[in-house]
Structures are given as C-alpha cells and as structure tokens.
Amino acid sequence: MIATARRSTRHRTSELLGVLLALALLAGACGGAEDADGVGNGVASTDATADDDDAGTGQGETVSLVAMHGSSEDFIVLVPLAAWDVCAERGIEVEQRYAEEASTAIQAMSQGAVQIGTNIGVNVGVPAANAGAEIVDVIATQRPTWALAVRPDIETFADLDGARLAVHGEASFTRAVADWYADNEGFEYQQLVIPGSEVRAEALAQGEIDASVIDLPDVIQLGQVYPGEFEVLATIGETFPELIEQDIWFDAGWVADNRDLAVDVVTCLLEGIRRLRTDAEYALELATETLPEVDPAVLEETVAEYQARDIWPEDGLLTEQRAQETLDFFFSVGEIEIDPATLELNEYFDFSLLEDALAELDS
Q1: Mean pLDDT over residues 156-175, rounded?
Q2: Class of residue 225 by CB neighbours under 10 A (exposed 0-12, middle 13-18, buried 19+)
C-alpha cells in the first residue's frame, strides 16, 4: 500500500544548519528565489513516501513527488521533464519547480521540501554534501556542452596556436575549459576577458577575437544572429566523454526510506533520456512547450546537435570510474577545493540505483 505523504522525521543536526547558512551565502540573493518557489515557507510535498513493495507500481494509486531545478527553465530541464512523462505512465506524479541557484534546490532537499534536485553539477553538489547536506548524486543527464566556437577558417586545434581566445573571466569555468583544451591539445593562446556569451559571439563575428568558450545552446542561438560567422570546433563533452555534468540528486534520507521508488524514478530518467535521443519530434515538442520564447528553428537545431553529438547519455554515465575522473577534472581546474583523493565516493554518489535501473531496462 502507498503511504500518504509523510517524510521521515529524522532529526536534522546543527551541522546541517551550518550547511544551509553556507549555501545561503553562496547563493547571494537566495531568499528571493525561495519565496518564489515556496521553499522555506512551510510548503511540503504530499504522497512522497511509499511501501517499497508497491511504490508506484500497478496499485492504481499515485505517488506525488517534487523536483527543483537549479536554475530557471533551460534546455537542461528537458531530461527531467521527459522522465516525468514516463513517471506519470507509472503512476508517479512529479511536480517540477525552478530556482535561480542550485544552492536553493540543495537547501530545499535538505529541508525536506523536495525529494529531487535537477541541474546540479558535481562541482556544486559534492562540496555541499561534503559540508553536511544529506543529498546523493544518482544519474547524469547530459555530457558537458561548453563549446569551443571559432572563426570559420580555424579547422584544427593547431590553428589556435597564438589565437585570441576570449573567456568570461579569469576565475570562470570558461577559462578553466580554455586552459584544459590548451593543455591537452598543445596550443598556446592570448587570453581576452569578455563577460557574456552574446558579447563574445559578437566579438567573434566581427573578427575581434579568434575563438571563445560558449555554451552550445548559446552558440546555436547566436548563430542565427551571426550566420556563418563562427563554427563549433569541439564540445568538451565530445573531447572528454567520461565527464559527467548536470546531474540529478536525491534527498538521501528519502532514498533510504523509499529505495524501490527511487529506482523507479531513476529508471524513468533513463527512459526519458532515451526518448530524447531517438525521438526528435517528441524532443522538439517538449522543448517548444518548455521554452516558447525561443525560435523554433533554434530549438530544432539544438535537438539535432544534442542527438548528433551524443550529449544525452543513454546509460546515465554515472559510474565509480567516471565520478572519480570528473572530480579529478574539477579539482585540476580549480572548480572544487576538496582533494578527490580524500573522498569516499559512496558518500556522495549512489551508483546502485542506476545499476538497478539499467538492469531493469536492458534485461
């Protein structure tokens, strides 16, 4: 039987309060987003727990869960939204909410207001969990989409030697990606700091720079404004396909109390990814509903690029080896300060949920 929506009332320690304070400081203006999404205002989910034997399966009853996205609506949310369509077919209703910062979603999980956090990178979730947030990474929704956009006449990495390459800031992730490419592909570049993807794209189109690190969806959208003025040399997800990003995190306590239901949700996430990979019409319809302000031609091209570049991983990516390589990468480029050698992976990642989901789908 499906229990009516009572979360476990296990005690949240003073250590966790310190985490929430740290997250609030990291988020800056986090409070406004909380008000907008109901976090911290006494809003709790309903029907969030179920007996393991019956959770979300064949009983004619509906389980209700809440997910919070670590940003406003974007292309990344297509995977969870596709998954929630699959969940609905299994009798699991998931309400998708949005926040302005990933830290708000982490805080919501820590407070028990939501069970699922979407669009939370390893470089954000692991430090939060290390500080005491009771959350666990369960699946990756996509490979990284940071792209190296270049002038049309630049065809190889060797052509970038001595090039003018713009990044968002000296301490930005775009700088880390640019340095990683330079180190791994053996070229040196002249760094220019130009904040804003649109501004860098305009500079590239006008010949003021030779290359820039820009997120792939932005490259596609800006390509409509500056047609033929730049190309994508590579995305980091293609160059480093084992790197995991934009993961789904669960409230660890909820997983402990509802493991079978958690496996069902991860299975739905895998099915959602696979639908997006193979059904362009469905992916475009979902993208159009989610992002109505974006030019349909841009959405269609973005779906095609994601499918062609294997951005959506059909296996969910999350394994011990990939998690270790991802942490090592983020540590090497300064995105996390915690030495991965000091971490026990199982304290931050639950690999077993994805393993069980893969076994169910691929058996």
Answers
A1: 93
A2: exposed
